[in-house]
Amino acid sequence: MSNPYLKPDDPRFQPKSPHDAAGNNLFADNEIVSAQLADGSAPSTAGSSTSSGNSTPDNSNLFAASPAGSSLPFQPTYIAVGKPRIRMLVVLVGIGIFTGVIAPTLYFNGNNIGWGTMILGLPTTVTAIFIGYSDLRAMQLGAMHNDRIGIVRLIFYFAVAFTIIIALEIAGLIFAGMQFAPFLDV
Question: Would you state the pLDDT for residue 18?
Answer without folding.
Answer: 74
